[in-house]
Amino acid sequence: MPVEFTLLEWFVYYLIAINMVAFFAFMTDKVLAENGGWRLSEASLLGWAFAGGTLGAYAARSLLRHKTRKEPFSNRLHAIACIQVIAFATLMLWFTTR
To answer: pTM for the full model?
Structure first.
């Protein structure tokens, strides 16, 4: 019997996966920084956050102490988080008032 997923379930699985990718991207950049290797671009790190990996990005920053004082990177990450919170609140309001 095939398993069927709802849209919400797919979205939750997507968020879990993208946050893991964002966390490991930050971790990879940290290791490369410590070893003097080629680094991941800030744009790619912010891109993973923008794609939904903001929690993974914040977790990696906190646990690995990576990119915590870097400007304007921090401001851009905070802006992405604010946009996502506003979008989430708007969607929740829209779905609950229909």
So the answer is: 0.87
